Amino acid sequence: MRLLNAAALADFHADELSSFEAGEGRANGGGLRVRGDVGAGRLKPHLGAVERVVVEFPAFRDGRGLSLAAQLREQGYEGELIATGDLLPDQAQHLKRVGFDAVALNDDAVEGEWTKALSTFSLNYQPTARSAAPVWQLRRERHLTEAPADRVKRLNAQFRTAPAAAILEAAIRDAFEGRIAVLSSFGAEAAIILHLVSKIDPTTPVLFLDTDRHFAPTLQYRDALVKRLGLTNVRTLTPDVAEAAAEDADGNLWAKNTDACCALRKVRPLARVRGDFDALITGRKRLHGGGRLHLPVYEVQDGQVKVNPLANWTAEQVEAYFEANDLPRHPLVEGGYSSIGCWPCTKPSAGGAGDRSGRWADEAREECGIHLPFEALKPAAA
After folding, report:
1. CA 365, CA 244: separation in Å to the nearest integer?
2. In sequence order, what DSSP letters do the residues of 320-380 get, joined into one string?
């Protein structure tokens, strides 16, 4: 369960129920903000049109907000539930059990006490009178049986307008808990995703494809960023030694066939660990253009989910995040490299031609293959 500042609720665009019913609220998406004493029956007609419900607790002794959450889940509501108001850390696990996804903490709340409560108390704390499985267990069971395409459809409906931090937290701590990794090249904009993930769980696996063709500054930047962000689970993936000896004995495969070089050094090394993860987090954005223009927040590729929390970010948002969080930039950015891959196939970006114009600049290609379905990578029939 996520812990939010009460001020963060401004990002959730929640309308008061009375405003929503009067037609002044959002007809699609958005959210509702209600008191815990509102009846679930009154909310039911509106649940199909909202992605999240904020439930206010006027007093921690008032358990009607807990009952409301449980009833909404029993009615099949799968959107986001956020608790706010007069709440105690002792209620943390019970809030989670009845179906809340997050708690918006008051200014005087001590986040450390809530974190401790979530990690200390057993889920048997404050058990329900019935023996029904708690919501978190039902969700986990659904995750095990739900088809990736169905899960992606549901998650896109729920998070298509959510902040990047909310998308990542839901993916790491709920939807794909223990089965998700970050795919990072430690390139020009990689620090954003890595910084966001480090604040949620710095032990999240980070997969780095070491092609043995990276710029030296990229490797230095990787090491500095890992130390700065406290990332503790960076995994380096390398080409198979025997395959490299057979296919690229002279080390010049990149000059003869860039598709084959990418397949050897990036596509196949990543494919070997695909079974370890149900989802991969990427830093791709629509602003990169080309095939990324219509990039969704969630997508499924060859049975594996890709999570793209920055899909709808603008260049201005990227720059603002670097500035606001004092993140170091890749050393080559100052030299005009707005997208950075392997040195043989990367040039400074051409002015006005797009961020990725320096990648395979002399070829009709946009991707190395790790973000393409396997079917698209098969050689054309003779």
Report:
1. 23
2. HHHHHTTPPPPGGGGGT-SS--BGGGB-PPPTTS-TTTTBTTTSS----STTS-HHHHSPP
- Which residue, 213, 203, 197, 153, is CA-closest to 310? 197
The one-character DSSP state at 194 is H
CATH class for domain 2-142? alpha beta
Domain locations along the chain: 2-142, 147-377
Rounded Cα–Cα distance for residues 169 and 48 (Å):
23
Residues 90 and 12: their CA atoms lie apart, in Å, by 26
Long-range contacts of 349-357 (CB under 8 A, 24+ apart): 354/288, 354/289, 354/290, 355/188, 355/287, 355/288, 355/289, 356/288, 356/289, 356/290
CATH homologous superfamily of 147-377: HUPs (3.40.50.620)
Alpha helices in 160-301 (DSSP H): 164-170, 190-200, 216-229, 241-247, 253-256, 258-262, 268-271
For 36-47, what is each residue's pLDDT tens digit?
A: 888 887 888 888
Asked if domains 2-142 and 147-377 share a fold, the reply is yes
Q: For residue range 82-127, list pLDDT tens digits in order.
A: 999 888 888 888 898 888 998 988 888 888 888 888 776 554 444 4
pLDDT interval class at 382 (50, 70, 90):
very low
pTM score of the predicted model: 0.63
Q: Can you give the C-alpha Rg of the chain in angstroms? A: 23
Dist. CA 328–CA 22, nearest whole Å: 48
The residues carrying an active-site annotation are 368
- Contact 277/252 with Cβ under 8 angstroms? no
Q: Which residues have a Cβ under 8 Å from the Cβ of 369 and sit 6 or more positions away?
A: 259, 262, 263, 266, 267, 377
